[in-house]
C-alpha cells in the first residue's frame, strides 16, 4: 500500500458527497433504503473513529418527484423546485431517522452560489459549520434548490453537487473529500464508450491534459454531474489543501475502505493552498 493512501487513514475532517444516481433504484427511481443504511452506518463509524464528517447529499428533486407521483422527465425549472421543496424535507426525515439509530445528530445546511460569494453569508456559514462540528453533529448539505434556479438547470453551477462539495470542503478546511460517483474513478477515456480506457489510480498534478479527459456525461439518467464537474471539484479541493477521492457509489462500504487506506477509486493529491483561488473559481462559474 503506498504512502499517499496510508495517509488517508489519518484524515480528520471528511466531506462525503453522494449524488442522486447513487441513492436510487434504477428500475423505479425510488430511494434505495438499504444503501442509505450502509451509507449512514459508514459515516457514523467514521464519527466513532473520531473524525468530523460532513455529508453533501443530492436527491431532493428525485425524492420529491416520487412523492408527488410524477412519472415524466422533469423539464420545467419551477417544477423541479417544487419537487426539491417536497423532497428535501422527506430526504432529511429519512436521514434523521437513520442517523438517530446510531444516536448521531445530523442537521440541514442549504447553500447557494450567491450565499457563498457574499462575504457575510460565507463567514456565517464557516462559523455555523464550526459550531456544528464542535457539537459533534453531522451537517447534511444540499443546494437550496427552491430559490436558486440556475443551479438545477441542465447547466447546473454545482453539477450534481460535485463542485458544491468541493466548495464546502474548502469552507470547513476539510482534509479529505470523497465523491461517490457512478464510475470507479478517472479513466483516460470514457469507459462506457471504449474498451481502451485505462484507469488512473492517483493524480499527483491536475494538469490541462487531465482536465480535458473529463467528459460531460457518465451515462446516468439521474443527476447532472459528469466527469468534467468532478475534475473541476478536484481542482477546487486540491487547491484548498484537501485530498480528494472519486469512487464508485454502487457500494458505500468504499467510504470505510478509502479511510482505511485501501486502493479504491482515484486519489487526487492536495496541491497548493490558495484561499482566493476557490472564490475566484466560484465567481466565474456560470
Ligand atoms: N440539488 C439537487 C437535488 O438534491 C441535485 C440534483 C441532481 O442530482 O443533479 O435534487
UniProtKB/TrEMBL annotation:
A Gene Ontology biological process noted in the UniProt record is: L-proline biosynthetic process
Q: What cellular component terms from Gene Ontology apply here?
A: cytosol
Reactions that this protein is recorded to catalyse? L-glutamate + ATP = L-glutamyl 5-phosphate + ADP
Domain annotation Aspartate/glutamate/uridylate kinase: ranges: 12-248
What would you give as a GO molecular function for this chain, any one?
Answer: ATP binding
Signal peptide residues are none
Q: Give the Gene3D superfamilies listed for this entry.
A: Acetylglutamate kinase-like (3.40.1160.10)
Keywords on record: Amino-acid biosynthesis, ATP-binding, Cytoplasm, Kinase, Nucleotide-binding, Proline biosynthesis, Transferase
User: Which pathway does it operate in?
Assistant: Amino-acid biosynthesis; L-proline biosynthesis; L-glutamate 5-semialdehyde from L-glutamate: step 1/2
Its localization reads: Cytoplasm
Q: What is its EC number?
A: 2.7.2.11
- Provide the residue positions that the database annotates as binding substrate: 58, 145, 161
Cite the binding residues for ATP: 17, 181-182, 224-230
Entry-linked NCBIfam families: proB (TIGR01027)
Q: Which family would the database say this protein is a member of?
A: Belongs to the glutamate 5-kinase family.
Per the entry, what this protein does is:
Catalyzes the transfer of a phosphate group to glutamate to form L-glutamate 5-phosphate.
Would you tell me the protein name for this molecule? Glutamate 5-kinase
Q: What is the lineage of its organism?
A: Bacteria, Bacillati, Bacillota, Clostridia, Lachnospirales
Task: Tell me the name of the encoding gene.
Answer: proB
